[in-house]
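Issue: ligand-bound run for flavin mononucleotide - logging full I/O for the record.

Environment: standard queue, default settings, no custom constraints.

Inputs:
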Amino acid sequence: MRRIQSHSNPGRNPANKTTNGLARQMRRDYERCMDLSDFRKEYSSRGLHRQDLKADPVAQFAAWFAQATELQVPEPNAMMLATVDAGGMPYQRAVLLKYFDAAGFVFFTNFGSRKARQIAANPQVCALFPWITLERQVILQGRAESISTAESLRYFSSRPRESQLGAWVSNQSEIITSRKFLLQKIAEIREKFSHGEIPLPSFWGGYRIVIDAIEFWQGGPARLHDRFLYQRKPDGWSIARLSP
Ligand SMILES: Cc1cc2nc3c(=O)[nH]c(=O)nc-3n(C[C@H](O)[C@H](O)[C@H](O)COP(=O)(O)O)c2cc1C
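Outputs:
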């Protein structure tokens, strides 16, 4: 077993010379590894022009989403969802957008999870689609509203049986003792629902993000990126170009 040497007087012991050399090398590697200033990429720019934008941001999102799918962005429907706790501390995690339309953007989750508890206290959320390979990001801001049980059931019924069982098993965001605990639970649930349809758990369903603002960001050369912000107004949507 290798032991970490005490640093009390490292120069005295000849064996420490090697240790010190190794430590220096590790520090150099670490510093090299942590310095991201050379991670500079020149965005080739597809460009985003005001005249190309659709008046309706959901239609604009649909057009970009279709391109993200066509150009094989990995998991294009994964969005980073940010919520805040009662003290204003933000937290974010990936969730999958399952469908969207003029009414909003819908994802599914556990109603006992941390995100659900935070949404109950403060329904304002922000979600980001990081379509980095296209040099694009889309950022939504709005209010998360739980959808009706009937709507959740419609989606739940379309899921594969294994995913339906998974929704029953997870007390999402709770501390658990081991993976074994989960495996035992899934075995119990599988047994319980061995015949017939799996019912919708009362603690699982969807949220719709009703958007107030949405930004479309397109990388451009020399850091002159294109950014357009749509904001909801009483009579429709305003569109403003933001400085990069
Ligand atoms: C690509 C990806 C997609 C995910 N999709 C979902 C999802 O649709 N719903 C969900 O509840 N968790 C999803 N998760 C797990 C969440 O990121 C998160 O761990 C979980 O929802 C618990 O978050 P919370 O403790 O903040 O509530 C996904 C994770 C990844 C990496």
